[in-house]
Write a structure and sequence with these properties.
By secondary structure, the chain is α/β, with parallel strands linked by helices. The chain has a domain of 126 residues: 3-Layer(aba) Sandwich (Rossmann fold), CATH 3.40.50. The protein is built from 6 helices and 9 strands; from the N terminus they run βββαβββαβαβαβαα. A 6-stranded mixed sheet has the order 4-5-7-6-8-9. The radius of gyration is 17 Å and the shape is globular.
Amino acid sequence: MIWRLEHRVTRSTQQPEERILTSPATQGLSLYEAARVAGVTFSTEAVPEDRFVEANDMRFHYLDWGNPDKPDMLLLHGFAQQCHSWDFVALAFTDKFHVRALDLRGHGDSDWAPDGDYSPEAQQNDIKGVVQEIGLKDFVLMGLSMGGRNSFTYASNHPDEVRALVIVDAGPENLQSGSQNIRQFVQQDDELDSIDAFVERVIAYNPRR
């Protein structure tokens, strides 16, 4: 099932607004209702806070799901995604971890790279800078696809910082067919006529997600 997340970003003194999700078949479900429909188990209807941090002369956005007395967890999304890709996962873990979901450079509400550098090396420097600025120590690192590659690279370079590593839909080697599929996907038109057309394109790109 594909959901479209409508998120109203709030700042500083304002209270975060509830997130509303819609699908081609169902309208008006909140994040929490949609999570229950999807079978996600969670104990608290946590409302994440939008936060920003400066690192490497760029501003990075992340969602802080609260519960600061618990062990830290950092979530890294995949290519052409953003921190809300983890909303259901974050909900499931907020009772046991202090979850942060990061927007990597050029994604979500984080800055675009001023020099156009989106290399793995640049992303590693970003992650290191964000980890230092937030003050993460002995944390769980979880990554999806591109975020998975970033995660196991970071963990191998900083084994003393990462207490556990979770990799989703990524491996140590690139498949040529997968790389070609990504190139074809990103070369398509940026604008579509309807949300249904967007959903169809995403399903065609990766039907298993």
